[in-house]
Write a structure and sequence with these properties.
With 421 residues, the chain is of the alpha+beta class. Helix content is 53%, strand content 12%. Among the domains are: 131 residues, no CATH class; 153 residues, 2-Layer Sandwich (Heat Shock Protein 90), CATH 3.30.565. It contains seven helices and nine strands. It has a five-stranded mixed beta sheet, covered by helices on one side. A two-stranded antiparallel ribbon has the order 1-2. A hairpin with a 2-residue loop joins strand 6 and strand 7. Helix 3 runs antiparallel to helix 4, helix 4 runs parallel beside helix 7 and helix 5 runs parallel beside helix 6. It starts with 40 loop residues before the first helix and ends with a strand. Keywords: Kinase, Membrane, Phosphoprotein, Transferase, Transmembrane, Transmembrane helix, Two-component regulatory system. It is found in: Cell membrane.
Length: 421
C-alpha cells in the first residue's frame, strides 16, 4: 500500500520577546517626573544673580529718573519774571540787562538758559555717580553675603574632610537642604567615608583577632619549653635546642604583641589623662640601661617636665621603642644616646638622638614602614621584629602629634616627637 505523502506543518514564528525594562540605579522615590524642576545650584545661582541684577537696575533707574526730573526742572526755569511791563532777574548765575528789551534781552536769556542747563546736567552727573557708587557698595555686600550662604555647604564639607584627614573616620557631613549638586556631593562623600570606615575597622578587627588567637599557642609553647629546660636530667643538646626554641618563641610573642599594639594605636585615644613626658622618657631610659651598658652605649640627656594629654602606656611605648632602637643600632665603641624633653608653646617635645651608621636621607622614611630596616627589605636579625618605628608613628598619630627623623651629621639619627598639650 503506497504511503500517503506527509505534509509537515510550517513552524510558527516565536513570539516577540518583551522589551527589556530600562533600569535606573536611583531608587524610585528619588526619580522625579519633571527633572528640569530640580533646584540645582545652576538654577539657584541664575535666579539669584538675575534677581539681584533686576533689583539693582530698578533702583538705579528710579534714582536716575528722579535726578533727571529735578535737573529738567532746574534747567528749564526762566531766569526772569515780568512785573508790570518790567523785567526782574531770578537767576543767581546770570546778570540780565533789565533796562533793555528786544534782541539783546533775548540773547541774554538764551545764554542764561544754556548756563542753567549745563549746571543742571553737571549736577545730574555728580549725583548719578554718587548713586552708582553707593549702589555698587550695596551690591558687593549683598553679593558677598549671598555667596557665603551658597558656599556654606562647601565649607562644611571641607571642615569634615579636614577632620577625616586627622584619622577621624567616624565624622559625617549629613548635609540637609535642597537636593542639589552640593547635597549629592556630600552624600557621596558620606558613603565613601562609610566604606572606608568599614574597611579600616575590618582590618583592625582582623589583626586584633589574629593576634589574640596566636597568643594562646605561643604561651603554651613557652610553658612547655620552660618546663623542659627546668628538667635537670635533660641532655646539653636538648637544653641548647630548648633555649633556641624559647628565643624563637619569644620573638614570635613580640611580633604578635607588636601587631596588636599597632592595630590598636591606629584608633584615636579617647581616654586621655595628664602625663609627664619627662617621667615617661626616664622610665624608658631605666628599662634600657642594662642593655645599653652591655653594648657600651652611654645614656644621657636633660629631661624637663612637660605634661601632655594622652595614654601613659602608649606614650611609654613611644619612648621605649625610640630608645631601644637608638641603643641597638649604634656604633660598636664610644656610642651614646641622648634623650631630652622640653615644653614649648602649645606642645611638648621628645628628642632621641644617637650615634650610629650613616643613614641616607632618602632612606629615612622607609624606616617607619613595618618590617623594614636600613638597606634591608625584611627583618632578619635579632635586634627586633621590625615594628618599633611603625608602632611609634601610629601611636604619635593617635595622639594628634607628629614625628620626624633626620640623619645626624657623622652618623645616627635624630628622632623628634611633638605632642600637643
Amino acid at each position: 500500500m503506497p504511503s500517503l505523502p506527509s505534509f509537515s506543518k510550517a513552524a510558527a514564528p516565536p513570539p516577540p520577546l518583551p522589551p527589556k525594562p530600562t533600569w535606573d540605579p536611583r531608587p524610585v522615590s528619588s526619580i522625579r517626573p519633571f527633572p528640569w524642576l530640580r533646584p540645582t545650584i545652576r538654577i539657584r545661582l541664575t535666579l539669584l544673580y538675575g534677581g539681584m541684577f533686576l533689583m539693582a537696575g530698578i533702583v538705579l533707574l528710579t534714582i536716575i529718573y528722579m535726578l533727571a526730573a529735578d535737573a529738567l526742572h532746574d534747567g528749564s526755569t526762566l531766569p526772569l519774571k515780568i512785573l508790570g511791563g518790567k523785567f526782574q532777574s531770578t537767576s543767581d548765575q546770570c546778570d540780565l540787562p533789565t533796562k533793555t528789551s528786544g534782541p539783546l534781552l533775548q540773547a541774554a536769556v538764551d545764554q542764561c538758559l544754556q548756563a542753567q542747563r549745563a549746571l543742571a546736567l553737571n549736577d545730574l552727573l555728580n549725583r548719578s555717580l554718587l548713586a552708582l557708587l553707593g549702589l555698587t557698595v550695596v551690591a558687593f555686600a549683598f553679593g558677598y553675603a549671598m555667596a557665603g550662604r551658597v558656599l556654606a555647604p562647601l565649607g562644611r564639607i571641607t571642615r569634615t574632610a579636614q577632620r577625616v584627614a586627622g584619622s577621624d573616620l567616624h565624622r559625617r557631613i549629613e548635609l540637609g537642604g535642597p537636593d542639589d549638586e552640593l547635597k549629592e556631593l556630600a552624600d557621596t562623600f558620606d558613603e565613601m567615608l562609610d566604606r572606608l570606615d568599614r574597611a579600616f575597622e575590618s582590618q583592625r578587627r582582623f589583626v586584633s583577632n589574629a593576634s589574640h588567637e596566636l597568643r594562646t599557642p605561643l604561651a603554651i609553647n613557652r610553658t612547655l619549653l620552660e618546663v623542659q629546660l627546668a628538667d635537670p636530667d635533660a641532655s646539653p643538646e636538648l637544653a641548647q635546642l630548648g633555649k633556641t626554641l624559647l628565643a624563637t618563641n619569644e620573638r614570635s610573642e613580640q611580633l604578635v604583641e607588636g601587631l596588636l599594639l599597632l592595630a590598636r594605636s591606629e584608633n584615636k585615644v579617647v581616654d586621655k589623662k595628664p602625663v609627664d613626658l619627662a617621667e615617661v622618657a626616664a622610665q624608658a631610659v631605666d628599662q634600657t640601661r642594662e642593655e645599653a651598658h652591655g653594648k657600651g652605649v652611654e645614656l644621657r640627656g636633660v629631661r624637663q617636665q612637660a605634661f601632655v594629654q594622652g595614654n601613659g602606656v602608649l606614650l611609654e611605648r613611644i619612648a621605649l621603642n625610640l630608645v631601644q632602637n637608638a641603643v641597638r643600632y649604634n656604633v660598636p665603641e664610644d656610642g651614646w644616646v641622648e634623650v631630652t624633653t622640653e615644653p614649648q608653646t602649645g606642645c611638648a617635645v621628645l628628642v632621641v638622638a644617637n650615634t650610629g651608621p650613616v643613614v641616607p636621607a632618602y632612606e629615612v622614611e622607609n624606616l617607619f614602614e613595618p618590617f623594614r630596616r636600613l638597606r634591608t627589605e625584611r627583618t632578619g636579625s635579632d635586634k627586633g621584629v621590625g615594628l618599633g618605628l611603625s608602632i611609634v608613628r601610629s601611636v604619635v598619630r593617635a595622639h594628634d602629634g607628629t614625628i620626624t627623623a633626620a640623619p645626624r651629621e657623622g652618623g645616627g639619627l635624630v628622632m623628634r616627637v611633638v605632642l600637643p598639650l
